[in-house]
Design brief:
This protein is an all-alpha fold and 105 residues long. 64% of the residues lie in helices and 0% in strands. 14% of the residues are buried.
Length: 105
């Protein structure tokens, strides 16, 4: 488990809100939700609904339609599928992408 994931989990278990965790760890609330979701923790009743429908093999589009929310909103409550951004131990490809972005600045 990455260091940031462990910090988020510890704070959540200590009763901190998503907003408080985000502020103290200097990350977005979205990222806090994604980290907790990756760990199987629903941060709200809506997150629990989305996770339950995912386990029932519903697609993101089906879930969005069933719950009356956007596909982007559904994505907030599902685990990362391509890996977490800004990891402590980035892949070689992530390092190449970061270097390229820096050169373009």
């Amino acid at each position: 488990m990455e260091r940031i994931e462990q910090l988020v989990l510890d704070m959540h278990e200590d009763g901190a809100s998503v907003k408080e965790i985000a502020r103290k760890q200097n990350i977005s609330e979205y990222k806090v939700c994604k980290i907790l979701c990756n760990l199987g923790i629903a941060v709200s009743p809506r997150a629990a609904e989305v996770m339950q429908l995912l386990q029932a093999d519903k697609t993101q589009d089906e879930i969005a339609q069933m719950l009356g929310i956007s596909r982007d909103a559904v994505q907030k409550y599902i685990p990362y599928t391509r890996g977490m951004q800004n990891r402590e131990n980035p892949t070689p490809n992530a390092l190449r992408i970061r270097a390229c972005r820096e050169r373009k600045k």
